[in-house]
Structure formats: structure tokens, C-alpha cells
């Protein structure tokens, strides 16, 4: 008689534990792969954004470089014009001084009271007066009246030709000082058809800016051989002139200033 023997597989705890940990490790690896993929995608996206920002900054930098180059070219042109105007004014004064020296020598030869020299002295006074008219409108009445007084006294024979020459020479020395000086003064100007007392910042005998009592800023502008005073509508330009006034009042007479320019080069 045969006997059937049935074997039952026993549950092995070690085997079950290994299967459990294998499953956990498999899940962990899968999770790490997913996280790594997400991190990679995020890094790529950040790199794309940063690359775009870099390109934008490079484009902006190129624009700023072009604007800077254009500004420097404009400033160099204006600087050349200013230097030319200064040289022209100084040359005019030196020529007047040379002519006066020549007149002084002629007066010595002909005599201090020589009537023959009066026309030449009057012509010299007229040339100086023309220089005042064409120059910046700084205290025009005061400066012009000095030459007018000399002319009137000479025409009225109140002074000799030699005396007139000496007075004109002293006046030209004052003009030379004004040509070298940067300072703030007070004077009356015509603004919008009215006489207004303002502070003026005079830069040599080339540029002139003004400040009203209610803190408005402007500049003297030359066009068609005429000078006029205009207020600055641009806030940035007005602020630049305000810095100039503040510096000059603090005795800072040299330095780098960005100023509005509106010049007509004289022929």
C-alpha cells in the first residue's frame, strides 16, 4: 500500500525580510531617480533664465556704451568750442593791449596832450566797447559805463589822451581777470520781459548761468548775435546748475561739472 507524502513549504523569516528590504530599496532608488530628474530640469530652467538675463544685460551694456561714446563725442566738441571762444577772447584782449602799448609810444613821441592821438584813442575805446557787447552779458551796464565815461571825458577834453589810455589799460586788466575767474555774483537781468535780481554763476567770459530768488535756474543763451536769459525746463539740467552754484559758493572753482550748453560759435 502506497503512501502519499505532502511537503508543505515552511515560511522562512529571513527570506521574507530580504524581499521586504529589496522592495524598499527599489522604491528608494526610483524616488531618487525622479528627484534627480526634477532637480536637473530645474537647473536647466534656471540656466536658461540666467542666460536670458545675461543676454539682456549685454544688450543694455552695449546701449550704454554707445550712449557714453556719443556723450563723450558731444562733450569733446563742446570743449573744443569753449576753448576756441576763450582763446578768441584772450587774443582780442591781447591785441587791444598791444595796440594800446603802441598808442602809448606814439603819445610819448608826440606829447601827452597831443590832439592828434584823440581819434586813435576813441577808436580803441570803441573796439573795447564792442567786445563788451559781444561778450557774455555779465554786468553789462557797469562795464560799459566805464568805457563810456572815459570816452566822454576824453571828448570833453577833461582828460588827456595819455590819461585815457591809462584808464583803458586798467579796464582791460580787469577784463583779463574776469576771463580767468569762475564766481557767483548778483545782478539784474531781463527775464520774460521783466527786470529780475538774480545770482549769476560766471565761468570766465564764456558761460553764464543764473538762479532766481525762488530757486529756478537758467542760462544766458546767444543766438543771432544777441544774448537772452532763459529758464531751464529740464529738471536734470537745473539740478546740474544747482550743483555748480553750490560748489562755487563753497569756493570749489575747479572740477568736473556736467552743464547744459547752448552755444553759437562766433565767426
UniProtKB/TrEMBL annotation:
InterPro entries given in the database record: UCP028069
Residue stretches in coiled coil: 40-113
SUPFAM superfamilies: Bacterial hemolysins (SSF58100)
Highest taxon of source: Bacteria
Keywords recorded for this protein, A-Z: Coiled coil
Protein name per Swiss-Prot or TrEMBL: DUF3450 family protein
Organism, as annotated: Marinicella sediminis
Lineage of origin: Bacteria, Pseudomonadati, Pseudomonadota, Gammaproteobacteria, Lysobacterales
Amino acid at each position: 500500500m502506497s503512501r502519499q507524502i505532502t511537503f508543505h513549504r515552511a515560511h522562512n523569516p529571513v527570506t521574507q525580510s530580504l524581499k521586504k528590504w529589496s522592495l524598499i530599496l527599489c522604491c528608494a532608488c526610483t524616488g531618487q531617480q525622479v528627484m534627480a530628474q526634477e532637480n536637473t530640469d530645474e537647473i536647466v530652467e534656471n540656466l536658461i533664465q540666467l542666460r536670458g538675463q545675461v543676454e539682456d544685460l549685454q544688450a543694455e551694456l552695449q546701449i550704454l556704451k554707445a550712449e557714453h561714446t556719443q556723450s563723450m563725442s558731444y562733450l569733446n566738441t563742446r570743449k573744443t568750442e569753449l576753448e576756441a571762444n576763450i582763446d578768441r577772447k584772450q587774443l582780442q584782449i591781447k591785441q587791444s593791449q598791444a595796440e594800446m602799448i603802441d598808442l602809448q609810444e606814439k603819445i610819448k613821441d608826440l606829447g601827452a596832450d597831443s590832439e592828434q592821438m584823440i581819434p586813435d584813442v576813441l577808436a580803441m575805446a570803441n573796439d573795447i566797447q564792442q567786445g563788451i557787447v559781444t561778450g557774455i552779458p555779465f554786468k553789462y551796464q557797469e562795464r560799459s559805463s566805464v568805457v563810456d565815461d572815459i570816452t566822454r571825458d576824453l571828448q570833453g577834453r577833461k582828460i588827456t589822451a595819455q590819461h585815457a589810455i591809462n584808464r583803458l589799460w586798467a579796464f582791460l586788466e580787469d577784463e583779463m581777470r574776469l576771463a580767468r575767474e569762475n564766481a557767483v555774483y548778483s545782478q539784474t537781468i531781463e527775464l520774460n520781459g521783466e527786470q529780475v535780481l538774480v545770482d549769476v554763476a560766471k565761468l570766465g567770459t564764456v558761460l553764464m548761468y543764473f538762479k532766481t530768488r525762488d530757486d529756478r535756474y537758467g542760462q544766458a543763451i546767444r543766438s543771432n548775435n544777441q544774448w537772452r536769459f532763459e529758464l531751464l525746463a529740464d529738471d536734470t539740467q537745473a539740478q546740474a546748475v544747482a550743483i555748480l552754484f553750490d560748489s562755487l559758493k563753497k569756493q570749489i572753482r575747479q572740477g568736473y561739472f556736467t552743464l547744459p550748453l547752448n552755444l553759437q560759435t562766433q565767426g
